[in-house]
Amino acid sequence: MSTSRLYNVVGINFDHMHMGDLLRQVHEHPGARLVGIADQSRERMASTVAAFGLTEDQVFTDWQLCLETTKPDIAILCPKTAEHGQAVVEVAPYQTHVLVEKPFAATLADADRMIAAMAATSKTMIINWPLAWYPPHVTTKRLIAEGTIGEVLEVHYYDGNRGPLRHIADKVEITEEEANRQKSQAWWYQREAAGGSLQDYLGYGVTLGTWFLDGRKPLEVTCVTDNKPGLEVDEHSIMVCRYASPYGLSKFETRWGTFTDPWTLQPQPKCGFVVLGTHGTISSYDYEPVIRLQTRERPETHEVPVDTLAPGWRNPIEHLIHHLETGCALHGPLDPALCRIGQQIVDSAVLSARERRTVTLLGE
Ligand SMILES: OC[C@H]1O[C@](O)(CO)[C@@H](O)[C@@H]1O
């Protein structure tokens, strides 16, 4: 997409393997230029340096020096979940737009610190949820907004993968043996780093779920997590939200240990969403070329091809630049205001699982 100018972009902190995917989007955008990357470990940056032909002066082990030297328009941040709050608080004073890779934060308090830090600048922050770019879910939201299934009453969500250590950037596969060897070292498996399937995947479900529910907040949250011997974090969580009448119960399940990875072969249960409205239902599964619709007029479940994403609305890099160029509203799930409701639900789920009871939604 053509732009009025070139946007200089940096990538800071390679904890999440999606950094590689995001930098590829920068590389492929004619209006964006990758001007620097920073991480404590040169080794973790090596494949990016090779893939995008970066020069030595564009590679930093000190993120502050990276920002001071390159003065970017956009900083992509992929730290471990527990460090999202601190990272944004520290980067915001450099007056750069910020893309934080999912999830929003480890806690609502961190999310609020991030929002406050960015509010003190004139810059934009987006939280990127890769699921927000899957055509089935975008199509589902469009049909909901057009009233095709009436008012949404229930959201059912199941998602995850075989585990965070079974793939690296660009979904390159890692063997089960190698993944098991890495478990004890990896931040994904550390409670202190906000690891675990709930922190990794519940935000996806409740952020897109709240988008489908038009910003509606639940009253109460009940969550149960598994408890595998030898692991500090969960690999499976099941959560129920209760909404005020006439909205019923919605449920959100996260799993590291699906039978197959959804991007290769959909496992059963299928990864994605089922949405029930007053006039119809939709099933919207990750990566599928169709969604399945049922309405009062046509009650037999039928396939609807997914939408082709519009230019400017195809991935987070393109979208952030499109937003900066045109002032268009942010894609719903990337907007911190909507993500904050998701974070309220995640915090409530963590508390519920810990105390083994139903809790009232946390936060204002
Ligand atoms: O589980 C680790 C990670 O794997 C993905 O499913 C795909 O890369 C991410 O959405 C998640 O954060």
From TrEMBL:
Keywords: Oxidoreductase. Residues 9-127 form the Gfo/Idh/MocA-like oxidoreductase N-terminal domain. Residues 138-282 form the GFO/IDH/MocA-like oxidoreductase domain. The keyword Methyltransferase does not apply. SUPFAM superfamilies: Glyceraldehyde-3-phosphate dehydrogenase-like, C-terminal domain (SSF55347), NAD(P)-binding Rossmann-fold domains (SSF51735). One of its GO terms (molecular function) is nucleotide binding. Pfam families: GFO_IDH_MocA, GFO_IDH_MocA_C3. Its EC number is 1.1.99.28. It comes from the Bacteria. It is an enzyme of class 1 (oxidoreductase). This is Glucose-fructose oxidoreductase.
